[in-house]
Amino acid sequence: MPEEPIAAVPLIDVCPLSDLPPGARVTLEHDLTDIVVVNCGGEILAIEDRCSHDDGPLGEGPLDVAACTLECPRHGSLFDLRTGRPRTLPAYQPVDTFPVVVDGDIIKLEVD
Ligand code: FES
Fold first, then answer.
1. CA–CA separation, 33 vs 81, rounded Å?
2. Is 91 in the pocket of ligand 1 (CB under 6 A)?
3. pTM above threshold 0.85
4. Contacts of 41 (CB under 8 A, 6+ apart)
């Protein structure tokens, strides 16, 4: 029985890697989902730009590069950029994260 082809994961372009130095962030929208892409000390991470507590704009909050967290600007929950999980209350549900691919100098996100 022939193997089924593996479906390609859709990729969307974000920006050139050189446009996102350590500590920088960029926001974008894809399919009505707001996403913030962060250079956390050289590690490029992407997370939903929406707090799971009360829809706060995570991408506008303070970034802790050492811990790779964003702090929700509304009520202060800290979100782990690698997992999307909140580390502090009042948020207790995770938000989506997106795999990042660096293709040459272009940052891309896997979305589905
Ligand atoms: S909206 Fe983010 S902690 Fe309340």
1. 16
2. yes
3. yes
4. 22, 23, 65, 66, 68
Backbone phi, psi, residue 38, to 5°: -125, 140
Could you give all domains of the chain from N- to C-terminal order, each with its CATH number? 22-110 (2.102.10.10)
Q: Is 20 helix (H, G, I), strand (E, B) or coil?
A: coil
Give the residue among 34, 36, 14, 39 at the shortest CA–CA distance from 24. 39
Q: Which atom of ligand 1 is nearest to the CA of 75?
A: 3
**Tens digit of each residue's pLDDT (9 = 90 or more) over 57-71:** 999 999 999 999 999
Cross-strand bridge partners of residue 108? 13, 101
Helix and strand element counts for the chain (H, E) = 0, 10
Query: Quick count: other Cβ atoms within 10 Å of Cβ 49?
Result: 23
Centre of ligand 1 from the C-alpha of residue 7, in Å? 36
